[in-house]
Design a protein that fits this description.
With 317 residues, the chain is mostly beta strands. It is built from no helices and 29 strands. It has a single domain, classed as TolB, C-terminal domain (Neuraminidase, 6 Propeller).
Length: 317
């Protein structure tokens, strides 16, 4: 792995002194158990797996609103569309935004205050919460994907194919401030891909999937690009990590059992258990948000000097 040094100034949100909800919440996920791909919701222990969204054909990317009341998802009807539904499966509506085209592989995330939605369809856009307008915030020849808002709303992490060499283009993780949208690269895998970043509830870690070890595994890293930790080490794909509301666990999709299932593990990689255990393919889990009063306190900006990306790699259980 090629080491890259760069200077990065990052302000990291801290929830020290705040109280997280102690509820386990729910997990939305995509499944093909009904032949087509639909959005389901289940309890955090895997029970009560219930159909929530079926717009007609091949649904994906079920994403909770910050208040947990609604789920935004994509459908491959036609050339791709975005839908909004109540989390109990009622009031399903198709979203249309003037001047914006949603592709079938688009991904999206709500801002923590629920007032905006960040969307990727090759470039990254920000939409108003009423979906009346969209503004492009990246414009690069390489594709940008997987945008996720930090818990304090000050940063957007995403993956991008901007890194390329004579062997091809590779997907790395990037971070940009919502003040200036100036992207900074935080991982550099040279000939491998990093994908699907997701913030821990306290803003101190990013979980993501990477094939840097030879197959796709789940890792965590600091938002400054340091302290990389490998959490899974299976013989098949592990993808799509998502944190529990209290940050103690991570759910993810895996193909280790011959088909895709949703697993859950402690945030250190231990106690990996199958939640779905279904013959269909279950992917794209997303844990419901914190359902309690959480008042983040912000640590002062930290100036990180010369950072060696990928330094100090640890492997969990």
């Amino acid at each position: 792995m090629r080491a890259t040094t760069f200077a990065l100034a990052v302000a990291i949100a801290s929830l020290t002194g705040s109280s997280f909800a102690q509820t386990d919440g729910k997990i939305a996920f995509t499944t093909s158990r009904d032949t087509d791909r639909d959005v389901y919701v289940m309890a955090a222990d895997g029970s009560n797996q219930t159909l929530v969204a079926d717009a007609g054909w091949h649904e994906s990317e079920g994403t909770w609103s910050p208040d947990g009341e609604r789920i935004l998802y994509g459908s491959w009807i036609g050339d791709g569309s975005m839908w909004l539904i109540n989390s109990d499966g009622t009031h399903n509506q198709r979203i249309s935004t003037p001047g914006f085209h949603l592709s079938a592989s688009s991904s999206f995330d709500w801002s923590p205050d629920g007032e905006r939605v960040v969307v990727a369809n090759g470039d990254i856009w920000i939409m108003e919460a009423d979906f009346s307008a969209a503004t492009k915030i990246t414009d690069h020849t390489a594709d940008d994907w997987d945008p996720v808002w930090s818990p304090d709303g000050r940063w957007i992490a995403f993956s991008s194919y901007r890194h390329f060499d004579s062997k091809g283009a590779y997907k790395n993780l990037w971070l940009m401030s919502t003040d200036d949208f100036n992207p900074v690269q935080i991982t550099d895998t040279a000939s491998d891909d990093d994908s699907a970043p997701t913030w821990s509830p306290d803003g101190q870690r990013l979980a993501f999937a990477s094939d840097r070890s030879g197959d796709w595994e789940i890792y965590t890293i600091g938002p400054d690009g340091t302290d990389l930790v490998q959490l899974t080490n299976s013989e098949d794909y592990d993808m799509d990590p998502t944190w529990s509301p209290d940050g103690s666990r991570i759910a993810f999709a895996t193909r280790r059992d011959g088909n895709w299932e949703i697993y859950c593990m402690d945030s250190d990689g231990s106690n990996q258990v199958n939640l779905t255990n279904n013959p269909g393919n279950d992917t794209e889990p997303q844990w419901s948000p914190v359902m309690a009063d959480v008042v983040p306190s912000v640590v002062e900006a930290v100036s990180w000097g010369q950072i060696k990306v990928g330094d100090s790699v640890l492997q969990g259980p």
